[in-house]
Specification:
- By secondary structure, this protein is of the alpha+beta class.
- It folds into 2 domains: about 5-115, Orthogonal Bundle (Arc Repressor Mutant, subunit A); about 140-290, Multidrug-efflux Transporter 1 Regulator Bmrr, Chain A (Alpha-Beta Barrel).
- The chain is about 40% helix and about 20% strand.
- The protein has 9 helices and 8 strands.
- It has helices spanning about 5-25, 35-40, 45-55, 60-75, 80-90, 95-105, 110-115, 160-175, 245-255, and strands spanning about 140-145, 145-155, 185-190, 200-210, 220-225, 230-235, 270, 285-290.
- It has an 8-stranded antiparallel sheet.
- The longest helix is centred in the first third of the chain and has 20 residues, at about 5-25.
- The N and C termini lie far apart (about 55 Å).
Length: about 290
């Protein structure tokens, strides 16, 4: 059993998070134990033990899960050929990909895609909370500039992401008060229908202006970008617990019927409800970057 004091535990968690983010950003690369240990600056022997203890699963199992969940997302949201998806998530052979995918989801990639395409229409919710529908299902296309994001990662149920926001707000209040009022963005990496609640990944982010001194926030945060490009966007009015209706309009009603494919990044949620005093006044804009035509 490895015993850690608070300071050591915080350092170890930061290094393990660096390795976890490396997995997300290099799905088709070298994600061996040695490569991830080097990224975390921890010896391979200790990295394996610490990763299993903190994350709750061995390194190999975590890498396989993230790759397959990314593949499932692309199967559901695009018409990209299965062989191409397999390569993009690190499988050189479609047959090998098919075997591990079937072991994880109990059906082949093609059957998974077909079942999702045959999914029922979006759930009906209170009309006052639904964005008006049109032939595009309320989806607009926007050309957006790149954005730099400072983030705190939350692992656990979406119902507890407020903890990450509280930590981020406390950090800003103490070290970078000029970021108060910065645009808030949430990045949800996992579908709760596919991933256990205790493993769901979510980034609470603030948009940082050009020239901001990153050293102000130290090692307590991660940095990522929302790239420039064309985004499919949809507005959701109302409580977060029915946000899935807007996602279904985007991913089920619009995307498969469009001529577009999503990029490899997860969609983002921009919270435009500054000053809201009730859940019914919440406004969330979902933005999905599209692959170039």
């Amino acid at each position: 059993m490895i015993e850690l004091n608070d300071a050591t535990e915080a350092t170890i968690e930061a290094r393990l998070l660096r390795a976890m983010l490396y997995v997300e950003w290099h799905l088709d690369g070298d994600l061996s134990l040695g490569a991830l240990a080097r990224e975390a600056c921890i010896s391979s022997f200790h990295f394996h033990r610490l990763f299993t203890m903190v994350v709750g699963m061995p390194v190999v199992e975590y890498v396989r899960s993230v790759r397959l969940e990314a593949a499932a997302h692309r199967l559901r949201s695009s018409t990209i050929p299965i062989a191409q998806i397999a390569r993009a998530v690190g499988y050189a052979s479609p047959d090998a990909f098919g075997r591990v995918f079937r072991a994880r989801f109990s059906e082949s990639p093609s059957a998974f895609r077909a079942r999702w395409r045959a999914a029922p229409p979006p759930l009906q919710v209170a009309p006052a909370l639904v964005f008006p529908r049109d032939n595009n299902h309320g989806v607009d296309l926007k050309a957006l500039q790149p954005r730099t994001l400072t983030c705190i990662r939350h692992v656990g149920s979406y119902q507890t992401v407020w903890r990450a926001w509280r930590r981020l707000q406390s950090l800003v209040d103490r070290r970078a008060p000029e970021l108060r009022g910065a645009e808030r963005i949430g990045i949800s990496h996992d579908d709760p229908e596919m991933v256990p609640a205790h493993r769901i990944r979510y980034d609470a982010c603030l948009v940082v202006p050009n020239g901001f001194d990153r050293a102000q926030l130290g090692d307590a945060v991660q940095w990522r970008s929302a790239p420039a490009g064309e985004y499919a966007t949809v507005i959701h009015h109302g409580p977060d617990h029915i946000l899935g209706e807007a996602y279904r309009r985007l991913y089920v009603n619009w995307l498969p019927r469009s001529v577009r494919s999503p990029s490899d990044e997860p969609s983002i949620e921009v919270y435009r409800d500054v000053g809201a005093t009730s859940e019914d006044e919440l406004v969330t804009e979902i933005q999905l970057r599209l692959a170039p035509v």
